[in-house]
Amino acid sequence: MDNRILGKYEIHERIADGSIGSIFKGKDTKKGSLVAIKIVHEEHSNNRVFSANLRKAVVQAMQLEHPNLIKFYDVGEYKNRLCYVMEYVEGTSIIKQTLYRGRLTECWSLDIVTQIATALEYANSHGIIHQNLTPNHIILNARVKIGDLGLPIPEKADTTAIAPYLSPEQQKKEDLDTRSDVYSLGALWYYMLTNSIPFEKLNLQKLMDGSLEQSLETLQRYHPQIFWPSCEVIFKMTHKEREYRYQNFTQVLEDIEKVKRGPFNLPNKIPIKKFRHCFCPSEIDVRFGKIAIEKGWITQEEIEECLNYQEKYALAGAIVNLGQIMLDQEKITPQQKISLDKIEMEQLLDQIDAGFLEEANAHHLYPKDKIQELKKWQKQGVRGVAIGLSDQQPTDDKMRETILATVKHKMSIKKAKLMLETAVEGELLTQTRFDKTIRIYQAHRCFGRFVSVEEIILERGFMDKTVMAALKRAMARSELTGKPALNYLQER
């Protein structure tokens, strides 16, 4: 291949292939800078209508200058095929980022959407509609870069892959305006938050002919992890009727700033101050929080703030773990979040291993030399010893069950006693029922079984489920914030 194109550009290696053409890395010989050169496939170059529209779109895009838009430099022909020259950008597309790393955090997605909306607001003010905003066309670099701005889609192209990001009016081949790009950005944002194709579980044919009835309720049913405030904005951006969407990107950016500022305004129908509407942080959440506090990464006041966000999300139908909340609220760094995941698992395995080996040794469940060998491994940092042993067939199944029950008992008894005492002090449980719960618990222990205090209370009808949920919430929050559990019961 002749490596000179349009007089001043050199073509180097091929770096990508697309539906319209192939992209090559190149060099501007006059400026000495790298460029990206796209050579349009022959079938599209020979289509006079499409090639004329594409050339016109590139010329229009060449007039724009914005830090979030990939710059177009030149357009012409190479060996009778249409070609155009663009800014060379290194980075990762959103599609690759989600493929390798999973869904994006809310904070990151908000930053990306803000940059895209700002760039499209600028482009739309110059009369240019993107028309093809998909995860493949967004590059994550030091800043977000948007590619293929305003370029037409070949009439006979297979749009199955991009259909979820095209507005209903674009599917119907109606005239487009800013609101079409608003729709596409909403669908793209949805993808970033969920790592799922928008409306993937719905009817693709209805999506492609523009007859699909989208609703926020449907989106949350399939992807409850979408945060309520972001979901409200996405819903308005992707409304089927463009009259009910945001009418321009200025309006979109205004609401995104409200989401960023928080705390989020949830619908009035969620009465979060009553027992019947209560969210309890999980044991994993509590372990995450305690580790972060012990490491000095977050204060108890900041933990409570994160717990409040978590509860609001949960009451709106989105269950998000506390570690993710801390990251989204920028209380911890991504590296600290990775460390939290690792430390939490290590501590849990250490706790299980220690208890299991102690009881296995006391009851002579395994040969003494085997136990000593495993303890040696444990001291050397090997984890998961108990899991490995539990997979082996012991000499006495009944004894093995007893040991497992004892391990669970040792891991939970301290919290169980504190919960019962708090329940009595908070007048949620009578002293008589307190005593009876203890006797039933001890009876199960005598028979080598483990039944939690919570299970006993609920099974016997000593406490309503909603009251138990409020009690557990109070205990979890108290453990993380250092405040008396009764404070949280009184506020509800």
UniProtKB/TrEMBL annotation:
<dbReference type="InterPro" id="IPR000719">
    <property type="entry name" value="Prot_kinase_dom"/>
</dbReference>
<keyword id="KW-0418">Kinase</keyword>
<dbReference type="InterPro" id="IPR011009">
    <property type="entry name" value="Kinase-like_dom_sf"/>
</dbReference>
<keyword id="KW-0547">Nucleotide-binding</keyword>
<dbReference type="GO" id="GO:0005524">
    <property type="term" value="F:ATP binding"/>
</dbReference>
<dbReference type="Pfam" id="PF00069">
    <property type="entry name" value="Pkinase"/>
</dbReference>
<feature type="domain" description="Protein kinase">
    <location>
        <begin position="9"/>
        <end position="349"/>
    </location>
</feature>
<dbReference type="GO" id="GO:0004674">
    <property type="term" value="F:protein serine/threonine kinase activity"/>
</dbReference>
<protein>
    <submittedName>
        <fullName>Putative serine/threonine-protein kinase</fullName>
    </submittedName>
</protein>
<keyword id="KW-0808">Transferase</keyword>
<keyword id="KW-0067">ATP-binding</keyword>
